[in-house]
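agent> fetching stored inputs for the glutathione docking request
agent> found them:
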Amino acid sequence: MYKLFYTLKSASMGVRVLLEEIGAPYELLETSVESDKPRPSEQLAINPNGWVPVLTWEGGTMYECAAITMFLCDRHPEAGLAPSIDDPARALYLQTLVYFSNSVQNAYQLTYYPDRFADTPADEPSAQRRGVRRLRETWQVIDDQICDNEWVLGNRFSAADIYLFMLTTWLRKARGHSVINEFPNVKRIADLVVKRPSVQFVYQPWIENPEY
Ligand SMILES: N[C@@H](CCC(=O)N[C@@H](CS)C(=O)NCC(=O)O)C(=O)O
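agent> prediction call returned; pasting tokens
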């Protein structure tokens, strides 16, 4: 039985989609991503950063969304969500997940938490503006990478497509972000991923109101 520290709008939603796709039993442990709300001590004991997702199972615990994605896909190969270790597509799969995590997500962080990237409150608008530009740059890299492929890895669906979809749900006009139409290849994949029953189930609140 997996346990997932979970909150709406966060990267824990992508991990929940994976668990649904895998069909593994899991339990959600409610937490928060708000700066002024406390985190459960069990969560902080595993991830002192106070971020989600955090995953636990019999025999282990871990955090970092990309790492959890690789871990779950490798642990449940029968779900067919990732290329195996000797598959030529493995390199692009790993590259894309890590780029999502350290570049696209980092750009989002600049726009959602500019205080963490600015020395003084007066510098925060500058960090936020740079984050918006950085976000556009990193999405453009992904859009160009996809080119006219059907999925992130070419002609097969994978966990990288779920990760991509999750990241698109964080685009907010109110924060000055680009709109998804600027990245037509990304949008094409996101529009396919959202049709999956696992995504319809987990992302129902976002589907009803994308600015939720
Ligand atoms: N690199 C981490 C980042 C996770 C992250 O930023 N999670 C956000 C929600 S999407 C969070 O927990 N934010 C609350 C905070 O930063 O205090 C990962 O990919 O797991």
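agent> quick read of the result: Strands lie at 2-6, 26-30, 54-57, 60-63.
agent> awaiting further instructions
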